[in-house]
Automatic annotation (TrEMBL):
This is EAL domain-containing protein. InterPro entries: dGMP_Pdiesterase_EAL/HD-GYP (IPR014408), EAL_dom (IPR001633), EAL_sf (IPR035919), HDOD (IPR013976), RNase_Y/CdgJ (IPR052340). Pfam families: EAL (PF00563), HDOD (PF08668). It comes from Paraburkholderia bengalensis. Residues 231-421 form the HDOD domain.
Length: 451
């Protein structure tokens, strides 16, 4: 099914989210940026546009310049950036947007709200007088800049530095001998330091000790980071709850087990009271919350809340829970696009996403934890071996999280009815869904969590 056909089908079925027209050919992936408290504070957005065949002409809209219609930059990209799904996927956090020279000189860039986005300047951009003048002009309009992917201090870096509020240092490429001095000088200059490519606890601790302010990477989702993460309940209690949820628990059983997980109870009570299911009165007990929402809905959201940080932080600020919720929702949305997908396949897809990095909470062997949970074989095979349709979808979403578009395209090519642009847009839908689940003023409750 083509992207246009998918979009038309979703629109015909009243399903919001996939952009229409030109914006349907532009999308983004998001990557988390954490602060020194290991909480989400921003997302970097990675642009995706499907390759255009050489014999395919890109249509232009009336009144739109030829450069806007043909280029990968300009009005089309900015319109896509301002789509509701992109804004919702940021979950009230700032967005870091990589920009090119062409985009900086496009007047349409001023449609981007300066208070919501930071512009990332490539470390190898041609920093001539004309570019510096444009940066100064935009800076005067309250736009702020980050120098991206820095591995050395060259002439370009020196020219850009006075106009940058922050510097992203590539922890994989920079010479380790120069890193401490480099970080110290930049901190003394008042620059916000962002460690880029933080994929292990060791790299995180190195950057933290050097005074870095932000950390970009997935170190928090790996088992080696579990020791530093305060989970919401003892591991044996979480395993007992997971095992209970794997069957058909009674209200009394679920209530008793949940009481051993106070952070889970807190979030579930908030969700129940924002759901509109309380029949005009506030839900005050756990039993009322379970009865008001139903054990199936409670079970599904509790599976996600197992990743909740033990410090009682807002769900939209919790990086591991946001990653789990986004991945699970993506798997659910994506499997529905495939032929012959029913309710069982949808539930299995959601569970595959939820438990795909459960070892980040429990530590130890992922295979051992999955054995304890007694998951169905297709789910186990998908997580451990990346086998079957669920395994391929898991490969898609993992590549999407990295913004590795070639890998997304290759994995989607193995699935009937799913293209990379569809995956990117469903990734934004999933991120938006995860980001609003704990905002009582905005959420419609658990109905949104399980449509």
């Amino acid at each position: 099914m083509t992207t246009t056909a998918v979009a038309e089908e979703r629109q015909a079925n009243g399903v919001p989210g996939i952009a229409q027209g030109e914006c349907a050919n532009v999308s983004f992936a998001r990557q988390p940026i954490l602060n020194r408290d290991n909480m989400l504070c921003a997302f970097e957005l990675r642009l995706y546009r499907p390759p255009v065949a050489q014999d395919q002409e890109t249509p232009s809209n009336e009144g739109e310049s030829q450069s806007d219609a043909q280029g990968s930059e300009g009005a089309a990209v900015i319109r896509a950036l301002l789509e509701p799904d992109v804004r919702a996927a940021l979950a009230n956090h700032p967005g870091y947007l990589p920009v090119t020279r062409e985009l900086l000189f496009d007047e349409a860039i001023q449609r981007i709200p300066a208070e919501r986005f930071m512009f990332e300047l490539p470390a190898d951009i041609h920093a001539d007088d004309q570019l510096i003048a444009r940066i100064v002009e935009l800076y005067g309009r309250r736009y702020r800049f980050v120098i991206d992917n820095v591995a050395q201090a060259n002439d370009t870096f020196a020219r850009l530095l006075p106009y940058a509020d922050a510097v992203k240092i590539n922890m994989e490429r920079i010479a380790q001998a120069m890193l401490p001095k480099f970080a110290s000088v930049l901190k003394s200059a008042g620059k916000l330091l962002i460690a880029q490519g933080v994929e292990s606890q060791a790299v995180y601790e190195q950057a933290f000790d050097l005074g870095f302010d932000r950390f970009q990477g997935y170190y928090f989702a790996h088992p080696q980071g579990a020791a530093a993460r305060k989970v919401s309940a003892p591991r044996h209690a979480l395993l007992n709850l997971l095992q209970l949820l794997g069957g058909e628990p009674t209200v009394a059983q679920l209530e008793a087990e949940l009481k051993l997980n106070p952070v889970l109870v807190m979030h579930l009570m908030r969700l129940a009271n924002s759901s509109g299911l309380a029949m005009g009165r506030k839900v005050t007990t756990l039993r009322e919350a379970i009865n008001a929402t139903g054990t199936n809905r409670i079970a599904r959201w509790t599976q996600l809340l197992l990743y909740a940080d033990g410090r009682k932080v807002a769900l939209e600020d919790d990086p591991l829970l946001q990653l789990a919720a986004t991945r699970a929702r993506f798997m659910e949305l994506a499997v529905e696009r495939l032929p012959e997908a029913g309710r069982d396949e949808t539930d299995a897809a959601f569970l595959t996403g939820v438990f795909s990095f459960v070892d980040s909470v429990f530590g130890g062997s992922l295979e051992h934890t999955l054995n304890v949970l007694v998951l169905a074989k297709p789910i186990r095979d998908a997580i451990l071996l990346r086998e079957g349709v669920l395994g391929t979808l898991l490969t898609v979403v993992e590549a999407l999280e990295r913004g590795a578009w070639a890998d997304v395209e290759a994995a989607c090519a193995r699935l009937e009815g799913l293209q990379a642009i569809d995956a990117a847009q469903m990734g934004l839908l999933a991120a938006a869904w995860a980001g609003v689940a704990d905002r009582s003023a905005e959420a419609t409750g658990l109905e949104r969590i399980e449509d």
